[in-house]
Amino acid sequence: MPAARVPKPRLKFWYDELPEREALEPPAPVSDYAQNKIPASYMWSEQTHSTILESRAGKLPDVSVAGKAAGWSDLRINWSAAAEATVPTGFPYFVRGRDSVRSYITDLFNKEVTMYDGAMGTMIQKQGRWLDEEAFRGERFKDWTCSVKGNNDMLSLSQPQVIKNIYLEYLRSGSRLIGTNTFSSTQIAQADYKMESLAYELNYAGARLARNACDEITKEDPTQPRFVVGALGPTNRTGSISPSVEDPAHRNVTFDELVEAYFEQVVGLMDGGADIIMVETIFDTLNAKAALFAIGEYLERAQVDIPVFVSGTLVDLSGRTLSGQTTEAFYASIRHSKPMCVGLNCALGAQQMVPFVKKLSDSAECFVHVYSNAGLPNAMGGYDDTPADMAMYNEIFFENKWLNMVGGCCGSTPAHIAAMKAMLRDKNYQPRALPPIRRPKMWLSGLEDLVVDDCVNHLGMPFLNVGERCNISGSIQFKKMIIAGKYMEAMDVAKKQVVDGAHVIDINVDDGMLDGMAAMQKFVKIAVTEPEVGKVPFMLDASKFEIVLAGLKWCQGKPIVNSISLKVGEALFIEQAILLRKHGAAIVVMAFDEHGQAATCDEKVRICKRSYDLLVGPQIRFPPEDIIFDPNVLTIGTGMEEHQNYAVDFINACKIIKEQCPYVKISGGISNLSFGFRGVNIVRESIHSVFLHHASLEAGMDVGIVNAHEMIAFEDLEPDMYTLSDNLVFNKCPEATDDILERTTWEKDAATARKKNLPMRRKPRVIVKAPRKKFWYDELPEREALEPIKEQCPYVKISGGISNLSFGFRGVNKIRESIHSVFLNAAILESGMDVGIVNAHEMFHLNDVDPELLEICEDLVFNKKDSATERILQATQREKELMEMLKKGIVPGSVVVKVDSWRDKGCQERLSHALINGITEFIDRDVEEARQMAEKPLDVIEGPLMSGMNIVGDLFGSGKMFLPQVIKSARVMKKAVAYILPYMDAEKRATMIAEGKDPDDVDENDTSAFAGTFLIATVKGDVHDIGKNIVAVVLGCNNYKVYDMGVMVPFEKILDEAQRLKVDVIGLSGLITPSLDEMVTVAKEMTKRNMTQPLVIGGATTSKMHTAVKVAPMYSTPDHPVVHVLDASRSVTVVSSLLNKNKAEFVESLMEEYEELRADHYASLESRVYLTLPDATKYRKMIDFVANPPAPKPLQLGEHVIVKTLEEVVPFIDWNPFFQTWELRGRYPNRGFPKIFNDEKVGAEAKKLYDDAIAMMATIMKDKSLSLKGIVGLYPANTVGYEDVEVYTDDSRTEVASRFCMLRQQLEKDVDNAEYFSQADFVAPKESGVPDYLGMFAVSCFGCDEEAARHAALEDDYSKIMVQALADRFVEAFAESVHRDIRTTLWGYAPDESLSEEDLLKIKYQGIRPAAGYPSQPDHTEKETMWNLMRVTEKTGIELSESLSMMPASSVSALVFAHKDSQYFAVGQIAKDQVTDYAQRKQKDLDYMERWLSPILGYDR
To answer: Are 627 and 682 in contact (CB under 8 A)?
Structure first.
């Protein structure tokens, strides 16, 4: 933990100064019924909500059975006494249905320490031996199939008089409130006795017996009305604790199961006549939260106010619950439910409870109670405290006025209650006064509590550090751990954050490779069991609301949910906020609305104020202190003018929001601010330090997601870094961005120099204002000027010729200026020197002097050591030698010269500029000029052209150029080479004729001028080649000779050509999954032929894991490795590494990595658990097609050929994949189209690319060079045998036209009640008799191949790749448009759909369109079924290759499911039993199906 700092004051706002107010009643729940204390009607038969009626329906047998033992003649559920009331109104009288229980209990608890009852179990044990197994069974349960003795709750049914008599004894001993005999009356707890079905009745009977007893005693003295407290016990299962030592993520109950059980219990208790609900003996707060959630749902649906009490149990003298929470954390976790009274019971005697009761009394805003045990259990399990003892030990509570209610738990009896009642009466002890109403504060909890408003971080800031390292997007290390399933290692990351100063841990597992729901739940379930992690609150962070909600249901504490916003629309925003309020979570609210993200100060304030008004208003009633606004910390220092004021806007908005929205917090992702400077922590953290200092102390920012370990205290900032950061954050000068970028570059270079032990260049100079030395006369007060100031020594200035100081070191400026820096720092700041004759350009700041040199200079200037002169002379000599080395170019540098126009430069520079910037306009002219200057035409290529391309390669490799620019450069290079080639050929012929050689005898394979040779092909059956084309261009730009063999190339042709050409490296590309097997075949054949070329694998469907596990073992050796390349931009690095002198080192590292991947893969196979196919089917997605019927019959059954113009589909274009094709990816917050245009790094190039695309689209649409055609099929269909869907020729469903075979998920899921999906689940089963239908389509963009070939003939790779990328966009848009037509007109199940294009792309419509070969059905062979059924090729011209790739390449096909419950999913890996079954269903050989399904096989074949 970093050393703590002196706390800095928190900024105060107007509401912080409001005075405390006297509290007359506890905080009430948010409902109008509770707020206004509306009396409950007690007429429960009038309830109409379906869930209440369902919980009650059929749960009571006939009165002759249910009422027999108790002597009841009816099974009434109405308990109002208002109609027959004869007692006066007002305290101390009470009448059910007339008076408010909340009002009465408030008056009662404010006037006296009220008596609760004692132990029920103890009194049952005192009944004696007669209460044996037979007595427990009674007449009704005499034939029960298991032992029931010990099930005390069932005595309410089998021996009701015993229970009622115990109630009466407690009431007569002084109890004003009695708890019902329902401690274990849930379905969950009663499962031990096979009495789950009796849960409702047990609660009804337990409450009704108490009701009868209370009414009997109240009738004796109406001034002492008695109340029934319906008791909800903890159940015998725990939501926060694993029952398995080996698996900390395992649970034997879920939150939803607890809620369901508790809801039924509440209905039974209320129907039986309870007045109050008590959640008691809480040893796991998550169970209590489930109970409170269920109670809240009941109260909302019943539209009634019932007071709720909560009682926790501390299991030992540590003062913690069984699940590890402290007393304060327990209260903070449940206070959102607004309990009327909170307290402690059980486990400890009153003596042991003292410190914990004090803590609770000091903390609770509501009433407080205790009902302790009668001491600690003795050796025989009994309790030794007598009634007098118990009264004496409880007296400390009464003396200190800590309680409003007192009772007894284990070992206590009516005599114990009577003794405490007598002490209270005799000594006139007064109850605890409610604490005053204070400023509301955010109060979070994990295992320990945390009041955010009182929080000070490790730097002394009034600021909550939210640790960012358990966020997949914030930590690559954490991401790898989670993807690999190494959750226990991930706990170490979380622990370190807490050690480093994080108050809250942000948890985010959003990643396309993960099941986010399962990962979030597993991480949280483990984290809550790790004391060093679980002690702090969590921030549950996800892009999908259902994921944070799932995590929330495993948090026993009070977490923060990140985030919700108005971008989902007001209705969904309100729904989400209400649900989070019910769960008690604090929330982060982003400054987004339906129109987008707030960037300016005004937008931030407007959206946050609108959100606030909704949240605290009558629709939601969210506690304002639990709201955290994130007004969007946006990136500064991008060079874009509109970004320069982002930090200022945030800080200004922060203060206004806090003023206008009382009690809220302000947060932000601090790392976003400096995103452009990532990798240089000193710069990033300096910017953060300045920003947080002002945002927190001057504007009230409270919370931030940070890496606490890296944070720099404001007072520790280097002066020059402070100046640079301050200028940038507050947009103080136009050059602020350039200045800090210059410093960032220096920091990077300095780090490299330190690593390589090279000399460092001088740090960029920053002017830092230093304070002037003050003297006594500077403090003299001003005086009236009566006469001229005389020349006196005070007020003079001191000067000097500074260069004289170091005259002996002239010519070595670094030494001279270091000496001057030390001298001036002391002379000015310590002695008051004011003036000096200097060379300002050369001056150093003291912080810029190398530490070793600084020490020498200080020794010299201050004459500290005799050796100072000798040491400075040695340093001077070293500096002179370094200067000589630099002169000779041993440490290269560069100078950028600014000129007015690039066309004014020399020929070579113009060529380089044209290549770098992709300008073809002048290329012929400039190449001709270069040719005239060169000795021979080849010199033009090997000289200026290759020099320019080398620069392009360097810039691309360093991330300073992007793929579209590189391809434009390639276009320029090809045009230049095309111009010069005829001259080269003519020269070559002339030379050969002069030498007497045949000029036609030319070696076409002479590649000596290239850096290497590379053969690339898209493998057999695959027609996709955009990625391949890009790789070819990128390598060509880096002087590699590339042989591009095109698409669908058989392995024989690839390898024959590679051997003939003797290429250095072979590259394979593929997009569809069958290509993976073909690549394995190529590798095997290379081994058979004893080939020695390295093999490079790439393409969208490939992966490093597949390459390591499947391809590399077939061929890879240290001489010829197999390498996976993620994208085109990395191909140059890989090929260069394979061909340069460091190949051995590169390959060794690669093979070690692939060996680890293989080991991980096979280890994961061993650890993976698969359900058998029958078991997976048993847990399938169950849709009730009767209650939720399928979509209606399509309006137009059969096949329909569809033709559309390009213009019609343009509105449906999703541009995001377009930029991914070109490897342009924005960073948050500028991900996606059109935000990518704002990205500091790629934004400008993305905009150029987009403009080029729009221009080409216009040309294409004008020339009609591309066209769209497709087919739609709509057929009657039903599922047969769980996994297949039969398609019928007509609606009679007598003739099967075809059968689609589906695959089901089998890999065991880490989530309770998991469903295992198959597409067959979304179509009604044949045996259901429900008619259903299945849709499908195939669409294509024609003409792309011809257009690509035309551009290739013109040496224009850029336009070739552009037209291919646009064809892909057109056909995807066509597919989206056709799917909408299916929904609205052809099938017509959503005729009124009116979604925007944006909502269409977000899949907000009903139904899905999964494609064969993709995650929901990974088998490509299902395309054949579709093609044959619709006669696709015959009607549209869209063909299938032998590997089932669609031709043209820009084609899309899909099945269409219309049911509202259909959803996308990934089948994932499957077991052999399903593959065998699938092969049989498709009537194919097992080997055949294993080849097609190889990427998803969960076993080795």
So the answer is: no
- Asked whether 325 and 534 are in contact (CB, 8 A), the reply is no
For residue 442, give the nearest of 597, 575, 628, 684 by alpha carbon: 628
The residue from 369, 458, 583, 1024 that is catalytic is 1024
What does DSSP say about strands 449-451 and 443-445: parallel, antiparallel, or unpaired? Answer: antiparallel
Report the 10 Å Cβ neighbour count for 1330.
Answer: 15
- d(C-alpha 1173, C-alpha 1170), whole Å: 9
Q: How many CB atoms lie within 10 A of CB 1043?
A: 18
Take residue 1055 and report the two structure tokens written for it: 């390898």
pLDDT tens across 1389-1414, in order? 998 888 776 676 667 789 999 999 88
Q: CA-to-CA distance for 515 and 1415, rounded, in angstroms?
A: 13
Residue 1071 has pLDDT above 50, yes or no: yes
Residue in 1476, 1188, 1218 with CA at minimum distance from that of residue 1330:
1188
Q: Taking the CA atoms of the chain, what radius of gyration do you get in angstroms? A: 40
Q: How far apart are CA 681 and CA 1127, in angstroms?
A: 28
For residue 346, is it left (φ>0), alpha (ψ between -120 and 50) or beta? Answer: left
Mean pLDDT calculated for residue range 238-245: 88
Does the annotation mark 1459 as catalytic? no
Largest CA distance in the chain: 135
User: d(Cα 912, Cα 110) in Å, to the nearest integer?
Assistant: 88
**Residue 711 vs residue 355, higher pLDDT:** 355
Q: How confident is the model at residue 790 (pLDDT cuts 50, 70, 90)?
A: very low
Task: Please state whether beta strands 1267-1280 and 1284-1288 pair in parallel, antiparallel, or not at all (unpaired).
Answer: antiparallel
| Residue 1040 neighbours by CB under 8 Å, 6+ apart | 1010, 1011, 1012, 1013, 1014, 1135
**Distance in angstroms (rounded) separating the CA atoms of residues 536 and 533:** 6
User: In a 3-state reduction of DSSP, which class is residue 405?
Assistant: strand
Cis peptide before 563 (omega within 30 of 0): yes
Catalytic residue among 156, 475, 1075, 1137: 1075
Residue 94 near residue 108, CB atoms below 8 Å: no
Answer yes or no: are the C-beta atoms of 1291 and 1331 closer than 8 Å.
Answer: yes
Q: Per the omega criterion (within 30 degrees of 0), is the bond before 1234 cis?
A: yes
Among 626, 848, 1022, 1368, the active-site one is 1022
Cis peptide before 1448 (omega within 30 of 0): yes
What would the two tokens of residue 296 be? 């809240």
Rounded CA-CA distance 1287/1197 in Å is: 12
User: Dihedral (C-alpha) 201, 204, 210, 216: value to the nearest 10 degrees?
Assistant: -110
Q: How many angstroms separate the CA atoms of 1378 and 1456, rounded?
A: 11
The neighbour count for residue 92, using CB atoms within 10 Å, is 15
pLDDT > 80? residue 568: yes
pLDDT score recorded for residue 1462: 93
* pLDDT tens, position by position, 620-657: 999 999 999 999 999 898 878 888 999 999 999 999 99
**Best CA proximity match to 177, nearest among 423, 419, 405:** 405
Q: Is 185 noted as a catalytic residue in this protein?
A: no
Q: Is 1075 a catalytic residue?
A: yes
Q: Hey, is 1061 helix, strand or coil?
A: helix
Residue 310 in this model has a pLDDT that exceeds 90: yes
Write down the pLDDT at residue 1292. 93
pLDDT digits (tens, 9 = 90+) for 1175-1223: 999 999 999 999 999 999 999 999 999 999 999 999 889 898 888 888 7
Is the distance from CB of 999 to CB of 1258 less than 8 angstroms? no
Contact (Cβ atoms closer than 8 angstroms) between residue 830 and residue 822:
no
Match 């009034």 to its residue by tokens.
Answer: 462
Query: Is residue 890 within 8 Å of residue 909, measured between CB atoms?
Result: no
pLDDT of residue 1167: 66
Cβ–Cβ < 8 Å for 1236, 1242: yes
Q: What is the predicted pLDDT for the residue at 1355?
A: 81
What does pTM read for this prediction? 0.62
